[in-house]
Amino acid sequence: MSTQRIVALILWPITVVIILQRSIIMGVNGDRTDDFRPVYDAALAFLNGRAVYGENYDTVDPHYLYPPSGTLLMSPMAYIDPERARWIFIAVSVVALIASAYLLIRMFGFDARSVAFPVVLFFFFCTETVAHTLIFTNFNSFVLLGEVAFLMLMLKRRDWWAGVPIGITLAVKPVLAPLLLLPLLNRQWRVFAGAVGIPLVLTALAWPISADPVDFIKRTVPYLGEARDYYNSSIAGNGAYFGVQSWLLYVLRIAFVLMAIFCLWFLYTQYRRTDELLWAATSSGVLLATSFLVSSLGQGYYSMMLFPLLMTVVRPGSVMRNWPAWLGVVGCMTFDSFISKRFAAFGRMLEYNKVTWGWSLLLIAIFCVLLFRWLDLRAQRDTPAVDSPRATVDA
């Protein structure tokens, strides 16, 4: 029996039990944070012609932040009572996660019968990002599915279809908006028909039947632009929580944007033609991790959108083949708590900084890997070949 077969035999029962525990036990149990209830209440209000965007944003409770297009898509679940609707949402989220894992391994050339499938599923459901997505019951599982489907269809040149999954996610949450840079750079213009058209069509349908769509623009959008100091792992949010000087926060944000620009340029010039899968998956991770860090809001469970980047470790030339990058992954994806009763201040610092430094270290590791490769390439271009006539004359 091969080693891969043995690993699969070990991981499948463990993974199945973890999936059931995360969904049926932890997911159904829930927690003090409930992302589902505001969505359900908004859907119910939408169906009954009541105002949706009238919340008090001064509280730290979860708020409803989806645009009218997202409200329209979410509204059917309000036909079911809230408890059963939440259970169904959790179940469908698990299906979306399993489908995401399957599409991800297929995109990287693995079969469902290979050891890659249980390994990826095991990793998925051991992370904080997946666990809290199910426990808090939010839309992130479907965003991940939309991301993987978008990347796969874009790489296969199914441009008309590639815009559909990302367009649906953008109609609810704009998390994947930075990824539209990829088809733009690749000149795959048809992708934008679905990516932009679907949110516009759904907004046009939802706007006239919403009770207060203008309040989304007047009240919710300005709130989304604020860097709140709770449940926010972006540089601005983390800095606001710890009282960091604003000038230093701007310097850090600019520095990470500049690092991202270099990484995207190098990946585009060196990998797009030689390994398009590596280019797209790595660039998607750089774009998303940077947006989590430098935007006004970056929540820890957004980290699941980095799964395609992590999967590149199986490809030669991957930027994930070094330990600092995976130390960063530990920071932004670990389900462990660092709160300490004995070392209270130190434990609190670790706990509330782990996601921010995880994203930061991951981006720094990627930047350093690509910078060293660029320096090596420049050194090779500047060094004349030993057997060339010019090298002989210069010698």
Automatic annotation (TrEMBL):
Its main location: membrane. This is Arabinofuranan 3-O-arabinosyltransferase. The chain crosses the membrane at residues 7-28, 85-105, 117-140, 160-182, 189-209, 247-268, 277-303, 356-375. The keyword Membrane applies. Keywords: Cell membrane, Membrane, Transferase, Transmembrane, Transmembrane helix. Coiled coil: none annotated. Belongs to the glycosyltransferase 87 family. It comes from the Bacteria.
